[in-house]
Amino acid sequence: MTEADGTLADGSNRPVLTVGELSQALKRVVEGEFAWVSVRGEVSGFKRAASGHLYFALKDADAVLDAVCWRGVAGRLGIAPEDGLEVVATGKISTYPGRSRYQIVVERLELSGAGALLALLEARKKALAEEGLFHEERKRDLPYLPQTIGVVTSPTGAVIRDILHRIGDRFPRRVLVWPVKVQGAGAAEEVAAAIAGFNRLEAGAAVPRPDVLIVARGGGSLEDLWAFNEEVVVRAAAASAIPLISAVGHETDVTLIDLAADRRAPTPTAAAEMAVPVRADLKERTHTLEHRLGASFRRLVAERRARVDGLGRGLPAARDRLATASQRLDDWSERLGRGVRGRLGAERRALGRLRPLRPRQLLALKRQQLGHVAGPLSADRLAQRIGLARAASERLAQGLGRAGRAALGERAARVETAARLLESYSYRGVLARGFAVVRDQRERPVTSAAAVKPGAALALEFHDGRAAARAAGKHRPRKASRDEDDGQAPLL
To answer: Which residues does 174 contact at the CB level (< 8 Å), separation at least 6?
Structure first.
């Protein structure tokens, strides 16, 4: 117990502190002694609060140290903390009086050595490969001669100058540059956003959509190129609808974006060479193809001309064929003249023989000729022949009548059979068995209860006439019992 003057009961004059005063004193001592330290450990229990602050613990085989990274610093970290990641955290040691704990307030976070980076890289590579992001069948061919090329890189430095210079030398094309950070905090997010932004452009707009993309960065250490190993960049490259060329680092540097891209270039200059052909080579090839096409056409014409000449040599001369036809025409003309003259002479001679006969003599001659012809046809013989012809006609008429009556009977029987068959197929036969036909106001048959609306006017046709009806409503159909007859169930 303490006395009224503040001294302890044992007589000592040690000051009595409150819990808050002691906590603040400890805080000042710890922060003054450990104002700036670097601690190596494995990240454990990582979480990101809604406020944006990061909370985790650093642990090793002997101890555990709480760590906190405020929101303003978290956006500048070079790497994103993950459970199991071995890191070196740099900051100051402080205390949290609310829980009597000490902690490190992280200002900088780095991976602990290249071994940890490589282990993380291999684990991430394996996980993304299992998702199929690196499969060859997903990769597309590059366009042969793109109209517009999109470049994602830093706006400063030698990389963009090398790309522009190489494209200008080979085949000048329109180049769109999306400036991004290529190293440090936020670089991965900017690269991924640039790839997605190029893909969102529409063809024919004021800013044209590129036909091919180049993501480029110069060489550097594994830590410098780490932004291109981040998962957000790899997924953006794999999801790009525009063919993408990865040109990160030098030939020996391999990042995960190289595996997801459609084509990997060892250097940014090589990426420009992949993007466009050499214009001079293209012109030379065009001229070569033009020369070959002309030579092939001339050779084809010469071959066809030689073939026509060869076929022409096998044909008879046109002059000889014309001479033969002309000779044949002369022959036919001469024969025609002789024939006409001969016919004319014969007619003249026949006329000369008839000229001495007078009209009376000609009439007597014709009568004589008629008597010779009509002599054998006496009146009796003519009557006999007429009788025979009449009998034959009667027999034919009788036979024709019998045949006609037989054919008519056969046709009548067929018509009667067809009429009975038609009557058996008619729905009126069904009506006679107790059924009815339901029609709507337009005289259209109603084939289902779903087509009948309550209150609709209907017409019922029975075998002996028609009756009007009106639908009162629908009901669920029921099964007919075995005792019921097979007549038609009520429709209304």
So the answer is: 147, 148, 149, 208
